[in-house]
Specification:
With 320 residues, the chain is mainly α. It folds into 2 domains: 58 residues, no CATH class; 216 residues, MetI-like fold (Orthogonal Bundle). The chain is built from 16 helices and no strands. Helix 6 packs across helix 10. The protein is flat and about 75 Å long.
Length: 320
């Protein structure tokens, strides 16, 4: 009687897969699990394309139509603008409304004020936020985690809850007793304490290898030299993101400049337009032209640097 060895077990797909790698699921190329399988996607590709295109068109129209209505309203006459049934396309075009708004409403003066505040606030935010983030990330102070936790906790508070304390602070600065109302510092100093920018910068600085800093320290570089020669050149993507956020934040802010800039000559463009809108001397079409002029710079900046914003924010969230 001869004994025969039992046949080897059938090699399953899971056993054949190399260790550490999940077996591929049939029907999905590359083993990627998706909401709709590849077979169903190929079968209903036309419906899929129509659904995606329709969704994109709806959301695009929802975002662009207010901008289109604002831009075209500035081209109408005051009589056409005041009609009960608004016209989608102006019956007559009056591009001179933009020129009239620029001169009669003194938009040029308020435009320069806003540019001055935005550039100054950007510079101060960049200096202070980079210094704080570098100290929390690389210098490791004793109570660094407590300070970071307190800064992040401040993001949970609504902005309206901080208006009164911030106003009382800039109206009578503690210890010094300075009154910063109607001065650029009333905008710059509160904007410099930006916990979100500090957190974004710190997350990016954490990804910089300490070996680079140690090598620079061995060569005799101090803390400031390391920051200037090593950290900042490697942090250009996130510095660009923080810069864009700082400029846009000051440019579009309305409530805080309305409180601290009471002199009409030093007001920002958004505050000046709100003040002029309450007067009967400004036609509504000229006011709409002023809104378009105030919106164009930020829209252009966003369209140019949108990839830098996404890339800079995601750079600090990945290792490697």
């Amino acid at each position: 009687m001869t004994l025969t060895a039992p046949p080897p077990p059938a090699r399953t797909e899971a056993a054949a897969a190399p260790p550490g790698r999940r077996p591929r699921r049939r029907g999905t190329p590359g083993g990627v699990r998706t909401l709709v399988s590849a077979v169903d996607l190929n079968r209903h590709r036309t419906a899929y394309v129509v659904a995606v295109a329709g969704t994109m068109l709806v959301f695009t129209a929802a975002f662009l139509y207010p901008l289109y209505w604002m831009a075209t309203s500035a081209l109408k006459t005051p009589v056409e603008f005041a009609q009960n049934v608004p016209t989608i396309v102006p019956e007559s075009f009056h591009p001179e409304n933009y020129t009239t708004a620029w001169t009669s409403m003194r938009i040029g003066r308020f435009f320069l004020n806003t540019v001055y505040y935005a550039l100054g606030g950007w510079l101060i935010q960049l200096i202070l936020d980079v210094a704080v983030a570098y100290a929390l990330s690389k210098l490791k102070p004793v109570f660094g985690r407590v300070v970071l936790a307190a800064m992040l906790a401040s993001l949970m508070l609504p902005a309206a809850a901080l208006l009164v304390p911030a106003y009382l602070t800039v109206a009578d600065v503690p210890i010094f007793g300075w009154n910063l109302i109607d001065t650029p510092w009333a905008l710059w100093l509160p904007a410099a304490a930006n916990a979100f920018n500090v957190y974004v910068l710190k997350r990016f600085f954490d990804q910089i290898p300490n070996d680079l800093l140690d090598a620079a320290a061995i060569d005799g570089a101090g803390r400031l030299r390391i920051l200037r020669s090593v950290v900042l050149p490697l942090s250009r993507p996130v510095l660009g993101v923080v810069s864009i956020f700082a400029i846009i934040g000051i440019w579009k802010d309305f409530l805080w400049p309305l409180l601290v800039l009471q002199d009409p000559e030093v007001q920002t463009l958004s505050v000046a337009l709100s003040r002029l809108a309450n007067t009967s001397q400004v036609p509504p079409t000229d006011f709409m032209a002023g809104l378009v002029i105030a919106s164009v710079p930020m829209i252009v900046i966003f369209l140019i640097f949108q990839r830098s914003i996404i890339g800079g924010l995601s750079a600090g969230a990945m290792k490697g």
